[in-house]
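User: Modeling request: complex.
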Amino acid sequence: MSNSMLAYEPIAPAGKAPQQLRHTLDSLAGKVVGFVDNAKPNFNHLVDEIAELLIHKYGVAEVVKHRKRGQVPVGDAVMNELAAKCHAVIAGSGD
Amino acid sequence: MIVCSTAFTELGGIQARALGHPDLPIAVVAHPFGIRTRDEIRQMAVTCADDIARLICGAGSTTVPVTDRASSAARAKLIDVPADPGEFNRLFQERSWSDGLPLIPPTAARVAAMLQHARRAPDELVATIAPAFGMATVERIAINAVMAGCYPEYLPVLLAAAEAIAAPEFNLQGIQATTGPVAVWLILNGPVARQLGVNSGGNCLGPGAWPNATLGRAIRLIQQNIGGALAGGMDRATQGQPGKYTFCCAENEDANSWEPLHVERGFARDSSTVTVAGAAGTTNMNTHAKDAVDLLRVVADTMTFPAGSDYTFGGEPWLVLAPEHAHILKREGLSKADVKRRLWEQARLAARRLSAKDFARVQAGRRAELGEIGLDTLLPISVKPDDINFIVAGGPGTHSVYVPGMGHVRSVTRQVA
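Assistant: Request completed. Predicted assembly structure:
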């Protein structure tokens, strides 16, 4: 009697193959930075503080903030708007 | 890029890879973060801003070779596994393919037998399962169904359930990656429930019925093995709940003198459906109330608790009404809509009962729906009465069940082919 048998792996490949990321920025000066606030406690305050620092210390020209309505993905319209307007977007993840 | 606290950095990295961005920069702040004071946040922001600047302007371009998207038609892989049941389970446990209970080995013969009950090709893509967006083909669903102990004739239910959980309004992404305890609850209606022997009576949410146990377990294995939500990995539930092992029942249509759930949702009475709902837990409501006013008051009181997600976002709470309780309401001429309306009106939470932080979240999250929210505002549990759902299920006894939801999850019903 064999000590082994064949069985299927139950896992699946992810639907998203690795993508080529955009180039990083040379600097933040003059850039537009977006924030996606995941509405977790205190993240809005962190966003406000970081936004001020990026503007005054790193010369960011403008900050765009979008606060999610809880644990739902950001819609395509908002994503496209952020992508069109911002050089970089920072999203809150987890708690 | 993303910002997350130390306890969620691994989740952030896993999900970034799952979404095709393995080099997504992550700035980290100390956990716990939500309880920090404003002064602490101000200090943390200084370091975080510097990290963000460094990461965004960092080490030149990031080039990850673009590879062809993995073919959804790729067949599952057969591997050598121990024939000994104990060793087989140890292997699958080590590979994080197990839910912690003994599995049935998904051999070619067992999977082939399961696939006989699909009127679709094995490599047909049924759905992509968040948060890793794994490709749930007919075959892969069958594999996990075998592991859960499902009989082959159960497969059509799971194919429909997999489609349902992948519907955008169900928000599986939120369910899978939350710190909350949400389980996917399968509710069966129509002939298939009787044909498969899905329990809708006594202990319908408890042990004993093979289809209840294995169908719910299979959908959990699909979420984990195909969707990638491993406990402690992308599944960040603080405690979880027993319903995450299995949560499945049928509606007791014989004891329900209203229209059953699937008819309420527009399906023909003689069609078979599976509904997926987000269940954050169960609360027993043992009441000997004998009239509708008294019964609904007690039920509404049970629903009204301040630490529930449904009030934070306007959710979709559920009830499992005992046949005896349903009879009381129907006897007094209440329709399902009447019951929902009365509960919606009575299960309002005074905003002052929330914690200060939760009150602030509700103010921000429900301002568009409710306008300015003050401490005296009475918050409805859902956006509208029809978002309160219930089925009739269970055996004799004066016990109904309150099943709180998770806020942004909306149940989905699909026909079983």
